[in-house]
Write a structure and sequence with these properties.
Largest sheet: 9 strands, mixed
CATH superfamily of the largest domain: Vaccinia Virus protein VP39
Radius of gyration: 29 Å
CATH class of the largest domain: Alpha Beta
Number of domains: 3
Mean pLDDT: 86
Length: 497
């Protein structure tokens, strides 16, 4: 959990960018990311130098021949000299770093633009980032600093569509329970939230419970992974486990920065239009976690040839993509609009049939429509399925509350809602007031509809009402009593006057 002082510094940084002429929060985060990356690059260089010394290996600094690009070199310059130096020298340096194992972030800097317009803004931002003492913070706090920056994307009017609520992400990760050694992919990764939470889930499961601390909304901290004793497991986690794609280069840069600050030094996030012909839909992944774009369609001529459906609707294509890139036995937990469950078009029916006939459709969690307010009131659900085999039964859960108000304010209630119950009931496929199981034969009878309302057993509570004539008589009787009391009161007042 971030201390109040750190939050205050980050809020101050936001205010400086806002008043300095950068009002778009996505642009502000991108520019702040560049500065944090410049700061972290020197820190990482020192870490690798220390590691090389311990291993008695040769070390070549990334700043070799470019010492003037170190944060420590230019951070105390006067404002005018700093802006000129960072814009013309340092920014050019990080844009042209070779694509080495530590600097994947830099390869997506090629089309980046340095947009801090005022010398005073840059100087103040550098001073605040110094005050955050990023290099001195533990990995948890470094990640929390960036997450707190990203939280501005969900504030009113601040591009909230880019982020899935963290507590919903944690629920979905728990439902598929990723493990060390599995490859995990989010084909529409945005800021990298699903990948980071999958990493934290794995490390948490390998951290002694008495070490872990939780903040008020359930976010775990002090995840040291003390049970992961083999170095090759850490290397696997940090280099060859998490893969993400996004067709917005700005989001790719932000996602990479986010993962670096959460301890994944070699993140595999890349720019790609995953629905297009150019994307390689090879079967590669053990786990898929995603909240893809809901609405819209793509140019039919550019749709990947691996899609069997003739649709151009992105929400349908994404679900088929998830199926295509999963290994047999691989699992997915993905958010879809409720239209995927109920719409009766040929394309929708075929997709649902594939989920039932070629997969084990394990569960469907319908979520209240306020989950993504104030940006969208669309009703959504989480699909959990395993590629391969056939579905025998589908477990349904009707989530009514996610721990926050379902209006535009989304104020916290208990910050848990039904989520712990969803996870507990899913593991056992339990039946309760909010969950039930439907056989695949029943689903086939309904043309593969997966709409919860088709199967939910509504129990109507019978309410006994009095006979209307009796109610009328009681009202008349009551009025007569009132009238009698008033007459008596009038008589008393007249007598005492």
């Amino acid at each position: 959990m971030l201390a109040a002082e750190l939050k205050s510094q980050i809020n101050k940084l936001w205010d400086k960018f806002w008043s300095g002429g950068i009002a778009n929060p996505l642009t502000a985060i991108e520019q702040i990311s560049y500065l944090i990356f410049m700061r972290r690059l020197e820190d990482l260089d020192k870490i690798h130098e220390q590691r090389a010394s311990v291993r008695k290996e040769k070390f070549k600094s990334i700043f070799d021949g470019n010492e003037n690009c170190r944060w420590s070199y230019w951070r105390h310059m006067n404002a005018d000299d700093m802006l000129k130096h960072v814009r013309d020298v340092v920014f050019s340096f990080i844009k042209n770093l070779h694509d080495g194992e530590d600097v994947l972030f830099s390869q997506y800097m090629k089309d980046a633009v340095f947009m801090i317009p005022k010398p005073s803004l840059l100087q103040e931002a550098v001073s605040i980032i110094d005050d955050l003492h990023i290099s001195e913070q533990n990995q948890d706090t470094q990640g929390d600093i960036y997450e707190y920056l990203l939280s501005e994307l969900k504030s009113a009017g601040k591009n909230g569509q880019f982020r899935t609520p963290r507590h919903i992400i944690r629920m979905m990760v728990a439902l598929v329970d990723p493990q060390i050694g599995q490859t995990i992919c989010d084909p529409a990764c945005g800021t990298g939230g699903f990948l980071i939470n999958a990493y934290e889930h794995i490390v948490r499961k390998n951290t002694s419970e008495d070490i872990i601390k939780y903040d008020h909304d359930g976010t775990p901290h002090n995840l040291i992974g003390d049970k992961i004793v083999k170095r090759e497991y850490w290397d696997l986690l940090r280099q060859k486990t998490f893969y993400g794609f996004d067709f917005d280069s700005t989001m790719v840069r932000i996602g990479l920065m986010n993962m670096i600050l959460h301890g994944i030094e070699h993140p595999n996030i890349r720019y790609a239009d995953v629905l297009s012909r150019k994307f390689d839909q090879s079967v590669k992944y053990d786990v898929v976690l995603a909240n893809p774009p809901f609405a819209g369609s793509v140019d039919k001529g550019d749709i990947n040839d691996n899609f069997s459906s003739s649709t151009t609707k992105t929400e349908l294509l994404f679900v088929e993509l998830f199926y295509n890139i999963l290994k047999t036995g691989g699992r997915a937990a993905v958010i879809v609009p409720n239209g995927i469950l109920a719409t009766s078009s040929n394309a929708h029916n075929e997709l649902r049939k594939k989920l039932c006939e070629n997969c084990q459709l394990e569960g469907i969690v319908t979520m209240p429509s306020g989950i993504f307010r104030p940006y969208s009131g669309v009703s959504t659900a989480v699909l959990i399925f395993t590629k391969g085999g056939k579905t025998e039964k589908v477990w349904f859960y009707e989530m009514e509350n996610d721990g926050y108000t379902l209006d535009d304010k989304r104020d916290p209630l208990d910050e848990k809602g039904d989520i712990p119950d969803v996870i507990e009931k899913f593991l056992m496929r339990s039946v309760s007031k909010k969950s039930f199981v439907v056989s695949v034969d029943k689903i086939k009878e309904n043309d593969y509809s997966l709409s919860l309302t088709n199967y939910k057993d509504y129990k109507v509570k019978r309410i006994a009402y009095d006979d209307p004539l009796k109610i009328i008589d009681e009202i008349i009787s009551s009025e007569k009593e009132i009238q009698s009391d008033l007459e008596e009161l009038r008589h008393i007042l007249a007598k005492n006057k």
